[in-house]
Amino acid sequence: xxxxxxxxxxxxxxxxxxxxxxxxERMIENEKYCIDIINQITAARNALxxxxxxxxxxxxxxCIADSIxxxxxxxxxxxxxxxxxxxxxxxx
Length: 92
Known about the structure:
Layout: H1 4-29, H2 34-70, H3 73-91
Helix pairs in contact: 1-2, 2-3
């Protein structure tokens, strides 16, 4: 479950990313230097990765922690498998 602090934090980050993407669009429309455009795309991608990490941390603090505390081994195993699959996709 996403708490209010995480919601606000990720919302701010996403608004900045949206601005970065709009800036990339303008750069392309204005035929700016390709390397400058690529650098802006890289910055936006890195910012999205940070949003993912914030959300993964929150998931571990809430969903996975709750599953472990519940003592339900099946639920804990499913949550950990789900997280590992997501982490694998994130890093590859």
